[in-house]
Each structure stands twice: as C-alpha cells, then as structure tokens.
Amino acid sequence: MNYLSENPCPHPGQKVVVGQNIVSAAGLMYRLRWNLTDIDTLAVLAERIPASIWSMGFTGTIFAHPLSDLGGVNGPWEKFLEKIWQEVVDGKRIFAFCEGGHGRTGTFLASLIAMIEKPDDPIAVMRERYCQRAVETIYQAERIFALVGKEVPEYYQKTLLDQTKIAAILEYWKNQALTKK
Ligand SMILES: [Zn+2]
C-alpha cells in the first residue's frame, strides 16, 4: 500500500464480525455517508467527535479512547476494550471510528478479536473480515499481539510502518498542507 496516497478506500461504516457479534467500523472522513440511526454506542478512537452525530439522530452513549494517528496505543486499552465488549454483550450496537478507518479502527477491531477469539494472528483475521489495509504501524501491532501473548510476526515487522517511515509520511503531509495554503 502507498501510505502517501489519499482516500485509499472508503469506510463509511461496515459491519464486522467479532466472536458471535457484530461491530460497525468507519472513518470520520466518510461521515456524510454514516448512518447512526440504529447505533447505541460510539467507540471513538479519533481525537475528535463530529457534532453532526446529533443531526444524524444519534441518541446513544459515547465511549472514547483517543489514539494518535500513525502512532501506537497508550493508556488503559484493555479496560476500554472490556467496557465496549460489555456493551456488545448487553446487546448494544457499536459504531467505532477514527479518521480514515484504517490504523486506529483496525487496531480496535483486531484487539477485540484478539481478546474474544484468541486467534494466532488477530490482524490477519481482522483484515479478512474488514480491510486488507487496516492496522498501519508496528506499534499498533505490538499492542494487538500482546493481547494474545505473542511477539509481532516478522511479516508485520517488515510491512507495517516503523518510526522512520512514519516520520517520512508526516513530513510529506506537512509539505502538502503548506503547498495548499
Ligand atoms: Zn480500507
């Protein structure tokens, strides 16, 4: 995948199987196409929540665990996952989102799958069900594989973004933003 390209694939909210249940996953940049009318709980991975959720008819609960774009996972992540999973078990319909729907949302889905299903490779399982481009950095993968008590496999060490690649992307985005002004 070319991380420098924009809008690689749209994620306006698709249903993803986790265990015996379903969780919806999306990107904020596709929010004009969101449908929150049957959603009970928002799981916010982004650093902002759009006020337009109210005009979309959302009347549910909001749980947030903001993560940095192209970063890792900090804070009490397992606690957040358990809280969300309790909602799922209680029959609530969950809608998770970050900006693009790949890195942080992919990390969330793979983490839930890791916690609930304990597969050998939670990222592979998540990608099969959601998107091949989801989970972006080695640091996200580390937290996911920690949930199944494993090291990040070599394949991901080679293909996911490390600090050097992330720095190059951030620099590219900065220059793009400057030339747009
Ligand atoms: Zn995608």
From TrEMBL:
InterPro entries: Prot-tyrosine_phosphatase-like (IPR029021). Gene3D superfamilies: Protein tyrosine phosphatase superfamily (3.90.190.10). SUPFAM superfamilies: (Phosphotyrosine protein) phosphatases II. It comes from the Bacteria. This is Tyrosine specific protein phosphatases domain-containing protein. It comes from Candidatus Giovannonibacteria bacterium GW2011_GWA2_44_13b.
